[in-house]
Amino acid sequence: LSTIIGTGRSGAVTLEDVEALDASGSVGHATERSEQVRLGSVHRTMADRMAQSWAEIPHFTESNLVDGTGLLARNASTANGISLNDLLVAAVIRAVVRTPRVNASYRNGSLVVYDDVNLAVAVATEEGLFAPVVKRAQDLELDQLADEIHRVTTAAHQRTLTTEDVDTGTITVSNLGMYGVDFGTPVVTHRQSAIVFFGSLKERPLVLDGLVVARPSLYVTVAFDHRAIDGALGAQFLGALTEELEQS
């Protein structure tokens, strides 16, 4: 349209102006503008894994509404440099340690249960979504975990991740609460069996001792690979995670 001289009021482009150019062959059939963006090797690996996951994995999800009062209290009492997201990730790690069968992968009719919790943290960047891995997360103290999350997140934004950084996870955490998202149903990553999704932490009506009160809360949803994890085991993990999040 920027190439057309409008004949309407104040130079507005009219339908007649467009039709006149089309009749002369200057416009022809309309086409959408597009941009072809070349993906890096890490992004291509992530894309391939997601497509494979969606095609192969029979998903099911389970969700809880979690009281976040204790979580906020712990966040207020921790040292500087420890974020709310760090506490969420730490709770996932403790819940995995309590229910180790979820830290697994279904392969060719067998279940591979991993010894280490290599936790992938979903990171949104200008280049797309990446999930760099915090390796052997079960051995890290909270401050060490926070430092490692910061390191891999920075590497994701700086585009210095390697395929090894995003292809060795055993379970994934995705937190979109910071974007105002309340609830989501995530896709299980290839060669994993579970992904934890955290929604926004905000005041909601909860029933406590027979009374409806406003309390900070968040929805937690876990998607599972039904080949590796059944509903009961999924419920055990979600229950353990809820307890870890709600502890005072």
Kindly summarize this structure in a few lines.
The protein contains seven helices and eleven strands.
Give a structural overview.
The structure is a single chain. The protein has 248 residues and is an alpha+beta fold. The chain is 35% helix and 24% strand. The protein has helices at 15-24, 41-56, 69-77, 84-98, 142-157, 163-166, 231-246; strands spanning 59-67, 104-107, 110-113, 119-121, 123-125, 128-130, 133-134, 171-175, 194-198, 202-208, 211-225. Strands 1, 4, 7, 8, 9, 10 and 11 form a seven-stranded mixed beta sheet that branches. Strands 2-3 form a two-stranded antiparallel ribbon. Helix 4 packs across helix 7. The model has no long low-confidence stretch (mean pLDDT 90).
Number of helices: 7
Helix proportion range: 25-40%
**SSE order:** HHEHHEEEEEEHHEEEEH
- Profile the largest sheet: 7 strands, mixed
The overall pLDDT, averaged over residues, is: 90
The fraction of residues assigned to DSSP E strands is 15-25%
